[in-house]
UniProtKB/TrEMBL annotation:
InterPro entries: ADP-Glc_PPase, GlmU/GlgC-like_hexapep, NTP_transferase_dom, Nucleotide-diphossugar_trans, Trimer_LpxA-like_sf
UniProt xrefs under SUPFAM superfamilies: Nucleotide-diphospho-sugar transferases, Trimeric LpxA-like enzymes
Naturally occurring in which organism (per UniProt): Blastococcus saxobsidens
GO biological process entries: glycogen biosynthetic process
Record's protein name: Glucose-1-phosphate adenylyltransferase
Pfam families according to UniProt: Hexapep_GlmU, NTP_transferase
């Protein structure tokens, strides 16, 4: 019996506005995580470990930052003569050309290519969450269910539920109710932006919906498509029992880093049975110099620490000078904290330079400093600050 033909579509084209300064100059899936990784490494590594080798990545905002990281797909075994990695940028020249206005709209614009592939199952995933999942297991469950869509679900906190698509699940994992980012969620069972679709029926339904609401009105998958599939009794749930975290906001990005500082982190990123791969860097070993002190932190290659670092994540090339203190913070590549400066509960983007004696952040909301910003000597940025301040 032939194996099912499976196509994976990674939706990596969103603006990522909830990550604020972190996505001003990079695509959201290219945002660093846990020192050496990028967010898109998680779905791509899931593809590799699931032995799925036909992966299309839909890109739009700041595409260079993603192209540079993806290259030819080699870290995820996607550099193949036939199939492998393909990027899908916005285009012109047909009636479906133009900017994507949402995830369902993106699917509609690529419908002709998807039909030509003749997949038995279409796996559609986002690229702003940290998790491990065998997509092939979900596909197998979907193909035997008679469903038009299988939604991977997870449990979320009640106060966080309005951020997600919320489902109600009945007997046999049938989805009996679906609401997209509801003000008053009926449950705390959320879709985690991993879907397996039956391609033909789903694309046919998109065409019909587009005729009803107009092409601009398709918006996101949760706006019209998933509610229609649920209403017709053609949606199934696939519970994910393991770890999953959406890191699409500054607060969740910072908080998820904190979880990976535990003695036993929620995911073993070096597990030989399910490794997370990334594009290799060119950094020497991390070095703790002089009076440098490290406590409960992640240090990437090329970091130099002569100060005091506690409860923090240091990306490649970060320097913490003598007498500087970094506490409960995430420092992205190339950041420098100069002598006597303090950084507390903050996220510092690439190449930030914190001047001598400066103070960034404190107890309270997370402080965010944008790429290559210079915090002058002796400056005080209070907790929750955004620097430079966003333009109105």
């Amino acid at each position: 019996m032939a194996l099912p033909r499976i196509l994976v579509l990674v939706l990596a084209g969103g603006a990522g506005g909830r990550l604020e300064l972190l996505t001003e100059q990079r695509a959201k899936p290219a945002v660093p995580f846990a020192g050496v990784y990028r967010l898109i490494d998680f779905p791509l590594s899931n593809c590799q470990n699931s032995q799925l080798s036909d992966v299309w990545v839909s890109i739009q905002f700041h595409p260079t930052s993603l192209h540079e990281h993806l290259a030819n797909g080699r870290p995820w075994d996607l550099d193949r003569t036939t199939g492998g990695l393909m990027t899908l940028p916005p285009y012109r020249g047909t009636e479906r050309g133009g900017w994507n206005t949402g995830t369902a709209d993106s699917l509609w614009r690529q419908a002709e290519l998807i039909r030509e592939y003749e997949a038995d199952a279409l796996v559609v995933v986002s690229a702003d969450a940290v998790y491990k999942l065998d997509y092939r297991d979900v596909v197998d469950a979907h193909l035997g269910s008679g469903a038009e869509v299988t939604m991977v679900t997870t449990e979320v906190a009640a106060d966080d539920a309005p951020r997600y698509g919320i489902v109600e699940v009945g007997e046999g994992d049938r989805v009996t109710g679906y609401a997209y980012k509801p003000d008053e969620p009926a449950t705390t069972t959320a879709t985690n932006e991993v879907f397996v679709f039956s391609p033909g029926p789903t694309l046919d339904r998109l065409e019909a919906l587009g005729a009803d609401v107009g092409e601009e009105g398709l918006e996101d998958l949760g706006t019209h498509l998933l509610p229609a599939q649920t209403k017709d009794g053609l949606a199934r749930a696939y519970p994910l029992d393991g770890y999953w975290r959406d890191v699409g906001t500054v607060e969740s990005y910072w908080r998820t880093h904190r979880e990976f500082l535990d003695e036993e982190p929620p995911l073993d990123l070096d597990d030989p049975r399910w490794p997370v791969h990334t594009r290799g860097g060119r950094h020497s070993a991390a070095r703790v110099l002089d009076d440098g002190q490290i406590e409960n932190s992640l240090l990437s290659g090329g970091t130099r620490v002569s100060g005091n670092v506690r409860g923090s994540v240091l990306s490649p090339g970060v320097h913490v000078e003598r007498g500087a203190t970094v506490v409960d913070s995430v420092l992205l590549p190339g950041t420098r904290v100069r002598a006597g400066a303090t950084v507390t509960r903050a996220v510092l983007d690439d190449g930030v330079d914190v001047g001598a004696g400066a103070s960034v952040g404190g107890d309270g909301d997370i402080t965010l400093v944008g790429r290559a910003a210079r915090v002058a000597d002796g400056t005080e940025l209070s907790a929750g600050a955004r620097y430079p301040e966003p333009e109105e």
